[in-house]
Each structure stands twice: as C-alpha cells, then as structure tokens.
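Example record for the data management plan.
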Amino acid sequence: MEETIKIFTGHGYWTPLIWTLAALGVLILAILLWSRGRREYKRGTEQELPFLSGEKAENPRVGAPHLYWGFVEALRPFLSPLRDWHSGLINDYAAWFLVVLGVALLLLVV
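Corresponding structural encoding:
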C-alpha cells in the first residue's frame, strides 16, 4: 500500500494542486470579464483626453490634500496636537521608531 504525504503546517490545509486550480479559475474568470468589455475605445482620439468629475480637465492633477480632505477634517482634533511633534528630521523619526519598537517588544515579552 502506497503512503501519501500530507503537509501539516498548523495554519491550515496546503496543497499545491488546489491552489493551482484556484489560480487558474481566477485567471479564467478575469479573462471572461475582460472579453465582455466595451470595444468602442479608439487610441489617438478624444477618448484619451483627461476627464475629471464631468468636465474636460485642463490640469487633471488632483493632489493628496483634495483626495483625503474628508479624513483630515474628521481627524483634525487628533492630528492637530501631533503637528507640534513634527520636526521633519529623519533622526527624530528613527528615534520614535526605536521607542515604539521597544515598547512593542516589551509588551510581547511580558
């Protein structure tokens, strides 16, 4: 009788055949969705011009302050006190990183 080898990692079931079939299924689904796309796109026409919020954009760049405005406004009470600690020096950030890393390691050990 032939013995089959199973890999038990303690973190779930792992078999390359199932993962390969799952990846192939996702690939087939992606190709099917892509093939159902619209065919009227033409390169070198007006379709390539920037279009932003219903308007033809002359300067289509949207900066991060505009994209994240809602988050910044919602978090303003929490972010305002932190701005005083912001120095812009990489040494300060490295020191804060080491302090936070040390605290995290202490919490893990204890």
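Summary line stored alongside the record: The longest strand covers residues 51-52.
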